[in-house]
Design goal:
280 residues, 6 helices
Length: 280
């Protein structure tokens, strides 16, 4: 179980990201890649195992949303010891009455030659969902992302690009282009590629400017994205987890996917009375 260190806090605050090396075991890495090998040829909008193909843009490649439903290896990532304490510290509303985590989005991504993801986010007029705040000795991040590399990602492989420190920016990037037009960020001033080995993970606050550089090499770039947020959040696109998945999860993992259980007159949840106080 990796605990946040003083250096982690310093670099995360300064840059907006950390690179976590050798985060998963060779077995889990192989198991995740095996599931990728079994993905059917889905068209945009089609479903498989309560997972949904929903590519962000026409250039981003195959993107399978709600991928935690894709099999047991994906369930291991919910509270993986390499990063769970880190995301709890940075986006778990630590030391508050809403303390806890929620997985906003989880995506399995395959990008082939020519694919890329336009630059987005940044501190300038950023969404509350991706905000970055440190105040009163606690972090308050709306969303912290884990990108797990399932393949080596080096030059030409379409690595994620980031603009360090941009989560605190008060100005728009004058050369960032238009996300809706799919402008590439390969040569964007201030942006750097994050190269990783298979099994490494990139953790970053969503409010930092980021995207994916163009893949020029043959083959596939495989990653998994888990976006963690505060316990009172809701999935971005309204995905709901299947009863079968929730039933087989450990209590700890279920609390992350469903931190607030549904409550109505028809549910079996019983409200417990407050502790009896003899002093009135």
């Amino acid at each position: 179980m990796r605990e946040p260190s003083a250096l982690d806090d310093f670099l995360f605050d300064l840059r907006g990201f950390l690179v976590l090396e050798n985060t998963v075991s060779p077995k889990l890495l192989a198991d995740l890649n095996h599931v990728f090998d079994t993905f059917p040829k889905l068209e945009y909008g089609q479903w498989w195992r309560n997972c949904h193909r929903r590519d962000y843009t026409q250039h981003t490649g195959f993107e399978l949303h709600n991928c935690v439903e894709a099999g047991a290896p994906f369930e291991e990532m919910i509270d993986h010891p390499s990063w769970i304490k880190l995301v709890q510290r940075y986006c778990g509303d630590d030391q508050s009455y809403t303390q806890g985590l929620f997985i906003d989005e989880c995506i399995a991504s395959i990008r082939r030659s020519g694919g890329h993801h336009p630059v987005h986010s940044g501190g300038f007029r950023g969404s509350t969902r991706g905000m970055y705040t440190y105040k009163h000795n606690v972090f308050r991040c709306g969303q912290v992302n884990i990108i797990l590399a399932l393949t080596d990602i080096g030059p030409g492989d379409g690595p994620t690009m980031v603009i360090p420190g941009s989560h605190k920016s008060n100005f728009p990037h004058p050369l960032a282009g238009d996300y809706l037009k799919g402008d590439r960020m390969d040569d964007l001033p201030g942006a750097i590629p994050v190269h990783m080995k298979a099994g490494d993970a990139l953790m970053f606050v969503d409010g930092m400017m980021h995207g994916g550089s163009s893949r020029t090499n043959p083959g596939e770039r495989r990653i998994i994205i888990y976006r963690y947020g505060v316990s009172w959040g809701a999935t971005r696109y309204g995905y709901r987890y299947s009863d079968e998945l929730l039933a087989r999860l450990t209590p700890e993992r279920r609390r992350i996917l469903q931190p607030i259980a549904p409550l109505s007159a028809s549910t079996s949840n019983q409200l417990q009375p407050p502790p009896y106080n003899t002093k009135g």
